[in-house]
Amino acid sequence: MKIAFFYNDETEKSYAEIHLKGHQVDFFPEPLSVESGWTSDAEVLSVFVKSKVGVEEMDAMPNLKYIATRSTGFDHIDVKEAHKRGIVISNVPTYGENTVAELAFALLLSLSRKMYPAYDQVRSTGSFSQENLRGFDLKGKTIGIVGTGHIGRYAVKMAHGFGMNILAFDITRDEDFAKEYGLRYVELDELFSSSDVVTLHVPYNTHTHYLINKGNISSFKKGAYIINTSRGAVVETDALIEGLKDGVIAGAGLDVLEEEGPMFDHMLVLGDDHPNADTLKTLLSNHYLIDHPNVIITPHNAFNTDEAVERILETTLSNIRSFAEGKVENVVELK
User: Fold this and answer.
1) One of 30, 190, 242, 260 is an active-site residue; which one?
2) Any idea of the CA torsion for 154, 253, 118, 301, to the nearest 10 degrees?
3) What is the pLDDT of residues 145-187, one digit of tens each?
4) Residue 88 phi/psi, 5° resolution?
5) How far, rounded to the nearest angstrom, does the alpha carbon of residue 243 sit from its chain's CA centroid?
6) Which of 37, 69, 71, 106 has the fewest CB atoms within 10 Å, measured from its CB?
7) Model confidence over 258-276: pLDDT tens digits?
8) Please, what is the Cα angle at 256 between 249 and 35, to 5 degrees?
9) Residue 139: CB partners within 8 Å, gap ≥ 6?
10) Average pLDDT of 118-140?
């Protein structure tokens, strides 16, 4: 079977070379791009979230039968178009349950104990003064966990360990799990208005687009913190900025932003006529977030541990081998 494998680093490439022996594998650095006229007769495509796979990319691969994304999320793939063409898609549903939840709490602890200002003060000035570095305990605070799937359940367990009061929202409720960890399922409006911390653990889709938005940001408990390790567009950037400026939101820990890619190439964007004014507006808004003293931004790094990356690769290559044997695992269904 011929495979086009887009890799992030040499570790991924080496791992795939070892475990896909017997197949014809062409390796390419992420992301997939057809702008240069790239085409492939491969039957299998493996990509990460950096690669958009839509109509043009599928047109460039006329023999494509199977896409193995090395991620849980699949919003970078046109699932409807793939199904229309009979292309099967598999993902990695459970590689980073604890991994992503741990990063969410790392962001929260960094905010609650002012870790970056404290470190920066010692590093830049040598001062060991505690002035303006007083934080707050997690114990006794109320955390609202939006989404209690694989990752959200670990967030619940961690919050329970810190002695927090736990509210949760999910379209599917596990009352036995709720009883075990002392959480209470509520509707979103109650979760927002009652939580000292809101952490997001939902996939990105039409239902979660701008889940936090200008229409509900003012309903948050005054002084709340928002943690987002899911997808950038689950939070409307303008709404978050409005909440920060009004003092409704005290701070935010963000591993994802609406416009992650272009943000870091802003000189090019600002030097040219931008084809999308809304994108530019979001881009500039993100700069406000970067400069805000109570906002911590990390580069979509929640998944990035040795153990999680190995689990991603193991599952992805198992998916590919199973497909080659006439079976399919972890199939993404059209909804």
Assistant:
1) 260
2) 70
3) 999 999 999 999 999 999 999 999 999 999 999 999 999 999 9
4) -85, 140
5) 22
6) 37
7) 876 544 444 444 455 555 6
8) 145
9) 162, 163, 164
10) 96
Q: How far is CA 34 from each of CA 92, 101, 156, 288, 300, rounded to the nearest angstrom?
A: 25, 35, 42, 33, 24
Looking at residue 116, the DSSP 8-state letter turns out to be: H
Query: What is the structure's pLDDT at 273?
Result: 56
Q: Which two tokens stand for residue 197?
A: 């911390």
Query: How high is the pLDDT of residue 265?
Result: 47
**Residues 97, 231, 236, 258: which is the catalytic one?**
231
Distance CA 168, CA 178 (A): 9
Q: Which of 28, 11, 75 is nearest to 49 (CA)?
A: 75
236 is catalytic: no
Per-residue model confidence as pLDDT tens digits over 211-239: 999 999 999 999 999 999 999 999 999 99
Interhelix angle for 10-19 vs 306-324, to 10°? 40
The model carries a pTM of 0.84
Q: Can you read off the two tokens belonging to residue 68?
A: 């193995």
Chain centre distance of CA 131:
34
pLDDT of res. 262: 45
Residue with tokens 């360990």: 161
Spot the catalytic one: 70, 76, 300, 311.
Answer: 300
DSSP at 137: -
- Quote the CA–CA distance of 2 and 23 in Å, as a whole number: 6
Rounded Cα–Cα distance for residues 218 and 208 (Å):
18
Residue 296 CB partners (closer than 8 Å, separation 6+): 107, 110, 111, 116, 251, 252, 253, 254
Decide if 47 contacts 69 (C-beta within 8 A).
yes
Domains of the chain plus CATH, in order, are 2-91+307-324 (3.40.50.720), 97-297 (3.40.50.720)
231 in active site? yes
